[in-house]
Amino acid sequence: MLGTAWSFVVAIAIIAIWAATGHIFHYSDTWQLIINTGTTIVTFLMVFLIQNTQNRDSKAVNLKLDELIRAVGGARNNLVDLERMSDQELVKLQKEFQRIGNKANEAKADVAGVKKELKSR
């Protein structure tokens, strides 16, 4: 709800009202403190709201990926709990996937070379 256009309009309206009342309060320190305190509180609360939203989104993406891994034949089911692996295990797995990617690129280059050679004949 806070990420909608309406919440942005409300925030702009609050700032406009605050700015418009500046001359009434003679642009005093108290007048400035009101907006500073308000924005600090909102920022503090938004950090937790944003973190919660990111955690929920990350969990949903992980569950979707887990379902894809489970559903695809030949996929390694031990990758379903990847987020629970230690950093060392993740580095080891990353190196393994880099080796697999390098082999695939080499094979692709070999096929391209053979095609080029056959065309030149």
Characterise this structure.
The protein has 121 residues and is mainly alpha-helical. The chain has two domains: 80 residues; 37 residues. The radius of gyration is 28 Å and the shape is elongated. The mean pLDDT is 90.
Class of secondary structure makeup = mainly alpha
Beta-strand fraction estimate: under 5%
**Radius of gyration computed on alpha carbons:** 28 Å
Number-wise, the strands total: 0
Q: pLDDT average, as an integer? A: 90
How many helices in DSSP terms? 3
**How much helicity do the residues have?**
over 70%
Query: Uncertain runs with pLDDT below 50, 5 residues or more?
Result: none
| Total of domains | 2
Q: What order do the SSEs take from the amino end to the carboxyl end, as H and E?
A: HHH
Measured distance between first and last alpha carbons? 66 Å
The largest sheet, given as strand count, sense and whether it forms a barrel, is:
none
Outline type? elongated
Can you tag this structure with a few keywords?
single chain, 121 residues, mainly alpha, 3 helices
How would you summarize the topology of this molecule?
Blueprint: H1 5-20, H2 29-71, H3 87-120
Concise description?
The chain is built from three helices and no strands. The longest helix is centred in the middle third of the chain and has 43 residues.
